Structures are given as structure tokens and as C-alpha cells.
């Protein structure tokens, strides 16, 4: 196969860091491959991938070289680079330049000097291929996160590149938009033969599409090969074992070996059917313990941004003390708006939200932040100091803590932020910003903790770490209200769940009933085993009971 | 009762942006070429009817309420400042100073007020028929770089405003509240938030620039995609508007619908106003006529 990208002894160190992020990397990527690069936060996935595109190459000390089509990347002209390598980033809102979809698609082709007739021909072809034809004259601002990321992909694809690089493209999308995005990406790979190189934390949806997995660990490549073979390497690692797709975890639990380990729901179901595997339910059935009094009670909440349509529409909610309620729903369904109202940051046009019988937005700010902590889905908008330490100290002062130095130090240790205390909160990674946001929210030991997408940008290991912290906080009496796209996290930690739809919350149900009865918005385990064990939502909920009949089982 | 047309289905909205831009330029100049009361009143009627067709009566009524204050202010100031000519309609004296309400002052003030209201109405209509993306398209044909710069700047400003709202809301969680406290503390907090916002916008702008670069910006001489097609009906509309506009200019050169002195404002109808009214009305309701022809041609 034609060698498209070649990396020879690449070592790279950022100017502010003492040790290299990646060291002596050797790699060849051939035309037509679908490569997933996985690794924990800070393992150098993005750094490595950015070296495949001249315009994205980071500043720092570099050794070794990268060749694109046997040509050193530095010798590639800007035009060659644009036409050979496409790039789609994590945040869908950062890439668009123009105000409508059609202009955004034309932008790339205008840059490379295509004539107007050719631009139109390509837009017509691509828009129909990707199903964007109905969106062409829509304003970019009016698109959902999923639609916007598709437009970003299209605006790169329209240049007909040989390879598309994607840096966690689904990190900010809801589950259904994520699934759709990966389906489109798979079509682009399968039908057009375009090489895909993608970094991703959440391997559940994407690993089954890939024909190659590269694991980054300890500055180097610890595994490079077929995805299902890499899963065993990952399982053996204390951090990377959390990256293993949940479907695969079910089959890795017993002391048995499946030569073709399933990595998708469909593969898992085929294996179960072929080998007549039986699973038994071993999950807990205890009901979630919550208090009898409501910490928060909302009645008839109605909110509209444009006074034309209601984002929140006559919404009622009672949140008992000690509960952990997760709200799930599509991008743009109004979850964040609801949380900001319930945190007293926004006043709805109609209805009341009371925190212990007081209207939440009428509680003086200084008092409210001592009882209600809020983590936004963009934590950087809650920052404002020069260093992480100063950020925490200022919050400690605002909260009038008794021993601010000591309490800040304890929080730094608890959230593993000690290596970041002197860094600017705006310069640290998205995942680290998320942890700093949590640290700010937990400084006070709040009665109500409101979290908007707390796992955004976190790798599975850090998610687990955060989950345990929040679990402890919840068990010590703090009520948690959370909006999340992360079905696995919600299934594992929350006590109740509700679906946000049409401006209101669908029935609040215990987590197991919620996911057990959902069909689309549910966990991979429930999708895999709903016929046998309808209430199973996590890998630990089931045990493989039968030995099966296949000779392939050893 | 006249109903608002679904805007995207109208002939006027579908006209080539350059045609619509030329038409609005001609209308705005034409409105400035006449200053007689009858022409101004009929011009106002013509614009109101056309606006209702494209914007709907609710939007026009809202605009009218906003313009009314402006209109009354201009009339009042004219009556106060123009005391010289007659006939006098009413007068009174206060502390030795005599105030005269004269017919020329009232009529001239009303015309000036109406002309300003007409301008606002014309721009209101322009805003709907030529939204920013179409306007940018018109400018891009002349100077593509400026067109692109306008789009990028507009997006940045939009993001800046949106982020400022978000930021001021979320900073309440840090006990920074722009709506509470003394003026000095609010100014201090506002300044602090602006600083954060500027840094954030700069970082986000840098990332956008990097991604523009990744999509080949500056790799070759930029071409321009002509999103809009030029149809024969565009020629027909443009020619009709330009012929009408040319006749209006000729009429104006012959002093039709124009007076150089306030003293001449004694009658509602003045010499040659019929022609001025007909031409201006024709110009203003031209889109409606085109709409009618467009619908007659429907199969």
C-alpha cells in the first residue's frame, strides 16, 4: 500500500517543559487506513497528530522528521498541504469563518483558487453526499453542535484531501450526534478511500470502525496494530484499562479468551448469538437513598431567549437532599439554560425555583455561592486570575473560608493540581481546566452542586478519578444536579436520571430504570444485553454464565 | 387586509443582491430629491404599503411607533426655530417673547420629519431584503479582501458580545456581579471582565486563524464564489428601476417637487407635484408590481 505519512525518530519537547512529550516515535501510515490514536491525557496524542500538518506543527524543540508522500513536511507548499491533509478540531465553533453553510464550504475552495463553476459543482456534489443540502443557506449560528461538526468535516472534505486528521471530533457532541458523525466518517473512509487519523478518548463508538490502533504511553508507542489486539495491552495497564470499550470489558471479565474480541454492540451480539452465551445479572438492586426534604423545587419554569419560542417550557422539578440527578438530552435541548436558572444565574420569564423555600435568584450572590456551587461547561469563563493558585485563593476569600491557605492546599492535593499551581488557568489543557473548575466548586463544601458537562475533555481514567471524588462528596451529603452527554458516567454514578425534551424534563427515574428502559440514550452494555438482562447498564452488572458451545472458546 | 409574503419566496428577496443594492441606492437618492409635502406624504404611503408586504404590519407598526417620536421632535424644533414666514396659524407671548406657529414652519418640519422616517423605513426594508451575507457579497465583488474582513470582524463582534453575556453571568459564581454594588466597583469588575474576554477572544481568534491557515488561506490567489445567479428578470427589474430613477432625476433638475425656501411652504399641493408623486410612488411600489408580474407568470 502507498505510504502516505512516515515519522522517523520524532522527539518533541514544549519550551516550558523539562522532558519531551513524545520521544523517538517511528510510524508509517498507508493510504486508506483508519487509524485511532489513543492514550491518557498528556500522552502526546494531539502533539503527534499536529506534526502531520505543517500549519499545525507546535513550537518547541524537535528532532527527527515527518514525511508526507515521501516529502519532508517542511518542503510541502501551503497549497499542497491544504489539498493533501485536512484537519477537524475538537471545538466545532472555532473553525467556521463565514456566516452561512454554503459560504463556509466555498471558503476552502476560494482559498485554493478554484473557479466559481468548479466551487459550485463540488458544493452540489458534497452537500448531497453528506445530506447537507437542506442546510446550505442556514446561518452557522443556527446549527446544532452535530450539524456544525459535519459542516466542519465537509469544509475540509471539499478539498478532496488524501488524509483527514481529527482531534477528538465528538468530544462536545451528544451520543446520537456522535454516532451519526462517526457513521459519516466511516462512509468517507469506506466509500472514498480517504485515510483517517483520529485521536479519541471514548473508544466505544469509533474503535470498531478503525483498522489500526496506536497507543501512546510513556512518551512512546506502546501498541500499534489491530484494535482488538490492543485491548489486551490496555487491560493490563492500570490507567488504560478504563479506555477499553465497555462491550469488550464484558468479554474480558472472565478468565477466558475470545480470539475475536468484540468491540462493538453488533459484534458482541453476533458472538453471543453464535456461541449461545448466557449472562446473569449481578448488579445491585438497592434503591437510591435520598432525603425526604427538597433542596430545590422548581415550578412552571419558562424561559425564552428570543421571546418567540421557549427553551424551557413549564418545567417542574423537585430535587430531594442527597440525590444525584443527571439530566441527559440532545445538544441545544436547554439543559445548560436550565442549570443556570436553577443556580440563580439567570431569571426565567415565568415560574419559580426555590432553594430551601427561597427564590434562588433572589439570594444575595455572596451567600448563594456558599450554598450552591456551579461548574459551567466552559470553566475558563469562570476564571480570572493569573495562576491556578491565585484563582483558588480568590475563591477562598470570596467564600470567607476560615483557613484559606490550608483549604486551598488540601483541594490542590485532592484534585492532583499541584504541578499546575503556578500556571495560568487559561493555558492549561481543557481537562485540567475542568478539574480546576471542580476544585473551585468544591472549596466550600456546598449543599447543592450543579455540574454542566463535568466530564467534557476528560480521559476515561480522569473521569473515573473525578467520579470517585464526586461520589464521596455526594455521600457526605451534597446534592448533585448534573447535565451530561456521558451516558456511561451518568449510569455509573448518578442516583436518578431524566431526559430533557421539548423544554421540560421527562419523568425522573432511578438510574437503572432510566437506562434499562431507554433504547437510544443508553449505555453500550444495555444495548448489547437488553434482550437477556434488561436492567444491565454497566459491565459489572453481568457475569458470563454459560461456557458456550464454540470451539473458538478456550 | 394585506398580508406579509413569505420573504424567501418573494421576487424581491430572490433578486440578485447587486440589483437589490442598486434599487435601494436609487430609492434613497430619489427620496432625497423631493421636499414637497404631497410628495413626502405619498412617498410615506408608498413605503408603508411596500414595507407591510415584506415585513408584515406588526413590524411596520413597531417601526412607526419608534419613528413617531423622532417625527414629532423634528416638527416641534422646526416650529420653534422657524418664526419668520406666514401665514401665522397661532401665536402667544411669554415674558415679552412672542411665539408664532406658522404654516410654512409646520409643513416644512413635517416634510423633514417624514423624509427622515422614510429613510429609516427604507433601511428597515433593506435590512430584510439584503441581510449582511448578501451585502458582503455585493462588496466582495468589488473588493474580496474587504468583504472577507467584514465577515470575520462581524463574527468576532458577535462572539465577543455573546461571550460577554456568558462571562458576566458565570462570574457571579466568583462573586463578581456587574449588576450589584457601587458604580466604582461595577466599573472595576466590568474592566476585569473585559480583560478576561479580550484574552479569551484573542486565544480563540488565534485558533481560528490557525484553522484558516490549515484550510489553505493565503495559499493561492483567492477566487470568489458567485453564490447568486443573474436572471433575465433581474435585468428587467434593474432597467425599470433605472429608467424611473433617471426620469426622477430629470424631473428634479426641472425643479419638480422641490422648493428652496421655507417661505414657499404654504400649500399641500405645489406646481408639478402630481408628476413627482407619480414617479416616486412608481419607484417605491416597483417591487410590488414586480411581485405581481412574478406571480402572474406562475404556471
Keywords for this structure?
heterodimer; A: alpha/beta; Rossmann fold; six-stranded mixed beta sheet; 22% strand; B: 299 residues; mainly alpha; 2 domains; 11 helices; 2 strands; ABC/ECF_trnsptr_transmembrane (chain B); transmembrane (chain B); Energy-coupling factor transporter transmembrane protein EcfT (chain B); transmembrane helix (chain B); membrane (chain B)
Stretches of chain A where pLDDT is under 50 for at least 5 consecutive residues are 549-554
Uncertain segments of chain B are none
Order the strands across the largest sheet of chain B as they lie in space: 1-2
Find the CATH superfamily of the largest domain in chain A: P-loop containing nucleotide triphosphate hydrolases
The major beta sheet of chain A can be summarized as: 7 strands, mixed
- The helix/strand class of chain A is alpha/beta
Please give the number of β-strands of chain B.
2
- The level of helicity of chain B is 55-70%
Mean pLDDT of chain B: 86
Keywords (chain A): ATP-binding, Cell membrane, Membrane, Nucleotide-binding, Translocase, Transport
Main location (chain A): membrane
InterPro entries (chain A): AAA+_ATPase (IPR003593), ABC_transporter-like_ATP-bd (IPR003439), ABC_transporter-like_CS (IPR017871), ABC_transpr_CbiO/EcfA_su (IPR015856), ECF_ABC_transporter_ATP-bd (IPR050095), P-loop_NTPase (IPR027417)
Family (chain A): Belongs to the ABC transporter superfamily.
Amino acid at each position: 500500500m502507498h505510504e502516505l505519512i512516515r515519522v522517523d525518530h520524532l522527539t518533541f519537547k514544549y519550551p516550558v517543559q523539562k522532558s519531551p512529550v513524545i520521544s523517538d516515535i517511528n510510524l508509517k501510515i498507508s493510504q486508506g487506513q483508519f487509524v485511532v490514536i489513543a492514550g491518557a491525557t498528556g500522552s502526546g496524542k494531539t502533539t503527534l497528530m499536529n506534526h502531520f500538518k505543517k500549519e499545525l506543527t507546535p513550537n518547541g524543540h524537535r528532532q527527527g522528521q515527518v514525511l508526507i508522500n515521501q516529502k519532508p513536511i517542511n518542503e510541502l507548499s501551503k497549497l499542497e498541504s491544504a489539498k493533501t491533509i485536512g484537519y477537524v478540531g475538537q471545538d466545532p465553533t472555532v473553525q467556521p469563518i463565514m456566516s452561512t453553510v454554503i459560504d463556509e464550504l466555498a471558503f476552502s475552495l476560494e482559498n485554493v483558487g478554484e473557479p466559481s463553476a468548479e466551487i459550485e459543482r463540488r458544493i452540489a456534489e458534497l452537500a448531497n453526499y453528506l445530506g447537507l443540502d437542506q442546510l446550505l443557506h442556514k446561518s452557522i449560528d443556527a446549527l446544532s453542535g452535530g450539524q456544525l461538526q459535519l459542516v466542519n468535516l465537509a469544509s475540509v472534505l471539499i478539498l478532496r484531501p488524501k488524509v483527514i486528521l481529527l482531534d477528538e471530533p465528538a468530544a462536545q457532541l451528544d451520543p446520537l450526534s456522535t454516532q451519526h458523525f462517526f457513521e459519516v466518517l466511516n462512509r468517507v473512509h469506506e466509500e472514498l478511500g480517504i485515510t483517517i487519523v483520529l485521536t479519541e478518548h471514548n473508544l466505544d463508538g469509533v474503535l470498531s470502525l478503525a483498522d489500526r490502533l496506536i497507543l501512546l504511553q510513556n512518551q512512546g508507542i506502546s501498541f500499534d496494530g489491530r484494535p482488538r489486539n490492543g485491548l489486551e495491552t490496555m487491560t493490563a495497564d492500570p490507567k488504560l484499562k478504563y479506555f477499553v470499550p465497555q462491550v469488550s470489558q464484558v468479554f474480558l471479565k472472565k478468565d477466558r479468551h475470545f480470539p475475536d474480541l468484540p468491540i462493538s454492540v453488533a459484534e458482541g451480539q453476533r458472538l453471543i448469538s453464535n456461541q449461545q452465551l448466557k449472562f446473569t445479572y449481578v448488579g445491585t438492586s438497592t434503591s437510591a437513598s435520598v432525603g425526604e426534604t427538597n433542596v430545590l423545587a422548581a415550578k412552571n419554569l419558562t424561559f425564552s431567549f428570543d421571546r418567540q419560542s421557549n427553551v424551557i417550557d413549564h418545567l417542574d422539578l423537585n430535587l430531594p437532599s442527597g440525590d444525584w440527578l443527571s439530566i441527559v438530552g440532545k445538544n441545544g435541548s436547554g439543559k445548560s439554560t436550565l442549570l443556570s436558572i436553577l443556580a440563580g444565574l439567570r431569571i426565567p420569564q415565568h415560574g419559580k425555583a426555590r432553594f430551601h423555600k427561597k427564590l434562588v435568584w433572589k439570594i444575595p450572590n455572596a451567600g448563594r455561592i456558599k450554598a450552591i456551587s456551579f461548574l459551567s461547561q466552559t470553566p475558563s469563563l469562570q476564571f480570572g486570575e493569573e495562576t491556578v493558585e491565585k484563582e483558588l485563593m480568590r475563591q477562598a476569600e470570596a467564600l470567607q473560608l476560615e483557613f484559606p491557605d490550608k483549604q486551598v492546599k488540601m483541594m490542590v492535593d485532592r484534585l492532583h493540581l499541584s504541578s499546575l499551581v503556578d500556571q495560568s488557568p487559561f493555558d492549561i489543557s481543557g481537562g485540567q481546566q475542568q478539574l480546576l473548575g471542580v476544585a473551585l466548586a468544591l472549596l466550600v463544601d456546598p449543599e447543592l452542586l450543579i455540574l454542566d458537562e463535568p466530564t467534557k475533555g476528560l480521559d476515561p481514567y480522569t473521569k473515573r478519578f473525578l467520579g470517585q471524588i464526586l461520589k464521596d462528596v455526594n455521600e457526605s451529603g451534597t446534592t448533585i444536579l448534573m447535565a451530561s452527554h456521558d451516558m456511561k458516567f451518568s449510569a455509573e454514578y448518578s442516583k436518578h436520571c431524566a431526559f430533557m425534551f421539548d423544554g421540560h424534563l421527562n419523568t425522573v427515574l432511578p438510574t437503572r430504570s432510566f437506562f434499562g428502559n431507554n433504547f437510544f440514550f443508553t449505555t453500550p452494555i444495555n444495548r448489547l444485553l437488553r434482550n437477556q438482562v434488561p436492567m444491565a447498564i454497566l459491565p459489572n452488572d453481568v457475569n458470563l454464565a454459560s461456557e458456550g458451545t464454540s470451539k473458538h472458546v478456550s | 387586509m394585506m398580508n406579509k409574503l413569505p420573504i424567501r419566496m418573494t421576487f424581491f428577496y430572490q433578486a440578485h443582491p447587486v440589483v437589490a443594492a442598486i434599487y435601494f441606492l436609487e430609492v434613497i437618492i430619489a427620496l432625497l430629491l423631493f421636499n414637497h409635502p404631497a410628495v413626502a406624504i405619498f412617498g410615506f404611503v408608498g413605503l408603508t404599503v411596500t414595507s407591510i408586504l415584506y415585513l408584515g404590519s406588526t413590524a411596520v407598526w413597531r417601526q412607526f411607533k419608534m419613528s413617531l417620536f423622532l417625527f414629532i421632535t423634528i416638527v416641534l424644533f422646526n416650529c420653534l426655530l422657524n418664526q419668520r414666514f406666514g401665514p401665522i396659524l397661532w401665536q402667544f407671548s411669554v415674558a415679552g417673547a412672542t411665539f408664532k406657529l406658522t404654516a410654512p414652519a409646520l409643513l416644512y418640519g413635517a416634510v423633514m420629519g417624514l423624509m427622515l422616517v422614510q429613510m429609516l423605513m427604507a433601511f428597515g426594508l433593506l435590512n430584510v431584503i439584503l441581510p449582511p451575507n448578501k451585502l458582503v457579497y455585493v462588496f466582495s465583488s468589488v473588493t474580496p479582501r474587504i468583504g472577507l474582513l467584514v465577515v470575520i470582524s462581524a463574527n468576532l463582534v458577535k462572539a465577543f458580545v455573546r461571550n460577554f453575556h456568558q462571562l458576566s453571568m458565570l462570574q457571579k459564581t466568583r462573586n463578581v456581579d456587574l449588576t450589584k454594588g457601587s458604580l466604582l466597583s461595577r466599573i472595576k469588575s466590568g474592566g476585569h471582565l473585559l480583560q478576561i474576554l479580550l484574552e479569551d477572544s484573542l486565544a480563540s481568534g488565534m485558533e481560528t486563524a490557525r484553522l484558516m491557515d490549515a484550510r489553505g488561506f493565503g495559499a493561492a490567489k483567492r477566487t470568489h464564489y458567485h453564490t447568486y445567479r443573474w436572471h433575465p428578470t433581474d435585468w428587467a427589474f434593474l432597467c425599470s428601476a433605472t429608467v424611473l430613477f433617471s426620469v426622477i432625476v430629470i424631473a428634479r433638475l426641472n425643479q419638480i417637487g422641490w422648493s428652496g425656501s421655507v417661505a414657499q411652504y404654504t400649500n399641500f399641493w405645489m406646481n408639478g407635484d402630481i408628476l413627482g408623486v407619480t414617479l416616486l410612488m412608481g419607484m417605491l411600489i416597483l417591487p410590488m408590481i414586480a411581485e405581481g408580474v412574478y406571480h402572474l407568470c406562475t404556471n
